[in-house]
Amino acid sequence: MEDSTDIQNFCTNYGFYQEYAANPQVQETNKQQEEMNVYAVTPQVQTGNHVDKTPFLSLAPFELLRNNPSRWKNTEGDKVRNLNEGTNAYQKLSAMQIMRLAGERFIQFSSNKFININNLLHLYGSALSNLSPEDNQDVELAQILLAAAEKVSDQQYDRARKMLMQCQLLSSNTGNPAQRAVFYFAQALEERIDRETGRLIPKIHSVETDGSICIASRFDASHLAFHQEVPFTQVVHFTGIQAILESVATKSKVHLIDFLIRTGVQWASLIQAAAERKDNPIEHMKITVVESVNKERVEETGKSLESFAKSLNFPFSFKIVFLPDRNQLTEDHFDVKPDEGVVIYAAFFLRAMICEPNCLETAMRVIRRLQPELMVVSEVEANLNSPMFVNRFIDSLFYYSAFFDCLEDVMKRDDQHRMTLESVTYGGGIRNIVGSEGKERVCKSVNLDVWRSFFKRFGMEEVKLSETCLYQANLIIEQFACRNSCSADVNGRSLTVSWKGTPIYFTSAWKFH
């Protein structure tokens, strides 16, 4: 696909860059999005010259629950109490269950005339009709939050503020997972109101420089503590490593290109596995890293990897392509040799480029010209980029609730690492997704189905991950105490890692036709 206009049109259709605007062209775009079951459209009522933006809560997330129960399935760690068992004991609901039940109740009691309640048959149905007092309070709290979001969407800011005052009274950043989630989402709504009423000066964020914006973009002591308790990142990285090793099984020279290395700790495992390969031993492995911000940090990572490879007597080299402007990237930066097997690794990188369509287009064209044996892509498995505010709010509420629920299971409530993760990483992402628009909003994750359609336009084919990849993923999960709540699931030819049925990340492999 050589016409950049085609790429721009495609990306707009899938909500990659376009913000919602009340004009025929964008409304037609949203119509296409609705047909693709990606986003829903806000109904509008024309009265003379006045367009009435009717308060509307998108049905898409709740239709998703009804039509795709496997996507939100219960695991061993998230069972719902069966009321027919004849017991009076309450089964504590997860934060995700509370939010979904609140959504159902809010829809049922909403005055929105556009909603067909008969179409909303919740996955758990009447099994959630009898709740513990705490769960019932949390569901009511989440209902208030949803009502506030609806009022914000309708620009009824005074009414929204009153509801948010209730949320602030009933929620807490030290409470249970649902209360913590509501606390941070209420903050984000307040920030959005302040922005839209001119009380807050806009701040332009950068995904590269502001680590608090998106999940999995910071690696400090708090993130290390989290990764020691929860296998999300390990599953993603080691599944990718297995796919890489299989793709270069017959290559004696391997050139891996990493577009966002972060710590690079996973490459020590790759080096060790490659050094132990007896059949067709690797004569040389080279890792090239594309970096735009912190060259010194990446240099230290490279020295560590070179030292590790030397200890194994393994032929290895490390190169940095430092480009403050990623739009200047070309295939010549990588010095690829004819006899090298090239592999592209893009973990949590492409979503950062959604805000910079020219850079995304440049990266994809360069990757195609490099003719890699394989491209491994890992990303957030959630649509957090709907041009419709309320849709985006609901999607992010469901998604982030899984993280608050996860931390409840693996860390104490007063754990400082937990407080940091919730306030800085998750709270920062929520504030950006919910509280910002336009160039300020840089956290724009889209799910695997959207990336599938995107890659298809570049002539890419999804490669099925092997049974060994799935085995490795499950083996990693089994090493963790939270294994009953975490699962690795096949998603077409790819793999999704989930928390109590809520998808968190995906790993996929691609090649060009």
TrEMBL record:
PROSITE patterns: GRAS. Keywords: Transcription, Transcription regulation. One of its GO terms (biological process) is regulation of DNA-templated transcription. One of its GO terms (cellular component) is nucleus. Residues 435-511 are annotated as: SAW. It holds the Pfam family GRAS. It comes from the Eukaryota. The keyword Transcription regulation applies. Residues 300-332 are annotated as: Leucine repeat II (LRII). GO terms for molecular function: DNA-binding transcription factor activity; sequence-specific DNA binding. The keyword Hydrolase does not apply. Belongs to the GRAS family. This is DELLA protein RGL1-like.
